[in-house]
Amino acid sequence: MSLHQNEIKKCAKSFKYFYKNYVQANVDNTHVPIEKLTKFQEIFIYELEDGNRHIGEKFTRGCGASHIALAKFLHMALFTPNQSYQIFLNGVPHLNETRVNLKIMYDLLPEWLQVSKMLCANKDHTRFENNSVIKFALVKTAAIMGMRLNYVYFDEPAANTQFSRNMWKLIISTISSDCGILLVSTETDNPTFWDKLCKYAACGKINIKYFSD
User: Fold this and answer.
1) What is the pTM of this model?
2) Which among 61, 111, 163, 189 could disulfide-bond with 157, CB atoms 3.0 to 4.6 Å apart, if both were Cys?
């Protein structure tokens, strides 16, 4: 087995190995290798690898949670064929920035690790050669209705006033029980958001594992 084939197998098996060794961080607009993970980052990555598909995560700005979440979706798309992933964001600028960051993250991987080629990267989705797709949308009811997804990621839901109980009920009724749900957000704009979220999730019989940095 060649060195590259061995590394590909390690990356496919472990998101942590993939992230720590091959994903680059943006530090002061310069992309650099990730030399060391913080304790919080280690815990967050462990939760993502542990088979827990329903995670609510509260964080402090600048801790790298959104970067890890985006890398997780890239990892899943590269190594798992025929999957549909959705990222919900607040505002068009944030959506565009996240879409561009995903493309940069992919482009900075070694070419041999781009095991599924990125076929297109347009304003609302990024499609890969293995028929997996990552979609981007604003948080609104119309975007949620009729979803058929394998994993959905809400970025900064606590800052979105539309993320109400009614919207959460819609999410619960639309997404199948085996669909992964990841919520990553600060809490400053809505201090009771996480308490409400856990109650809403319980009503929908979905276990949101919540933790904080």
Assistant:
1) 0.85
2) 163
